[in-house]
Known about the structure:
Helix content: 55-70%
Radius of gyration: 18 Å
Number of domains: 3
Mean pLDDT: 97
Oligomer: single chain
Order of helices and strands: HHHHEEE
Number of helices: 4
Amino acid sequence: MHKMTEKNLKDAFSGESEAHMKYLIFSDIAEREGKPNVARLFRAVAEAEKAHAAHHLRLIGGIADTGENLKEALSGETFEVEEMYLAYDAVAKLQDEKAAQRSIDYALKAEKIHADMYKKASDKVGKGEDIEIDKIYVCTICGHTREGSALDRCPVCGAGSDKFKEF
């Protein structure tokens, strides 16, 4: 593939991915505001944006088998933990941006857990096995991720158990 086409597809993947997430968030807001049909419209278009992103990612060689996908995911989470969010936090502190610091802290704490989960999964898949995993709970406020039983309160942001989504 020509370099310019590859770069364009990478940029398109980023844009489609951002639109996908943005529309899912917009859907949640419309749902809370009592507009279920607008929420459904946002979810439908988000799914279309996901399809576009998947096509672009496939063409640029960004999709592999589960073992390689886990390595890629672990690499991304590790980068976020060891470099990206540390640098972002330093800038937020320098500029005295308290809300940004809190948002970054939430993400950093969750990314550490995600990296650990991906590492364990990667080790198992590397042996040709699937992981054994209990229910997974994600705090919809801060992203804290936990395997096992539900919590009464999020240990990171203090949100109640009603703010956890089960997977």
